[in-house]
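lol ok so funny story. i was supposed to be doing the assay writeup but got distracted and ended up predicting the structure for this chain instead. priorities right. anyway since i did it might as well share w the group, maybe its usefull for someone
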Amino acid sequence: MNYHWETVDSVNDGMYIGFMIFMTVENLLSLTILHPSKEIRNDGSRRTNMFGSVMIGQIMDFSFKSRRTRGLAGISVVAVLGTRIWVGGLFNQRGYNYHDIRNMTLKLIDFKNSGGDLAGPFVLYSSYGLLDAIFHCKTRS
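and the output, tada:
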């Protein structure tokens, strides 16, 4: 709807309605997801989790002397990674200025021809997904 616009004055109502429909369908589809522990392939093996889940799983499965040490190690990894990722988000956000938005001088990024301008925000967005996987895996252990 707003793809390849040279100037973006505002988002039209159709964009908001489209997002609301998309989120409603997404929420309904999430009710049909099978719990990962119940997913078994045809050859009998279990499914491979995301990198973040595997990483925190390896830390939590590592042989520590006590349960307390294992718990502290897991929460430390979550705290350190979480802090680093959120600080990265803060530095990325500091590049935006209210006056640039108000004066419409903000540099817009198109994912097809942005080159290196998209690399930082893409890594940051992926890191948020990594942190989410680690956090959810840690809260279930």
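The chain has a mean pLDDT of 79. The chain is about 60% helix and 0% strand.
back to the writeup now i swear
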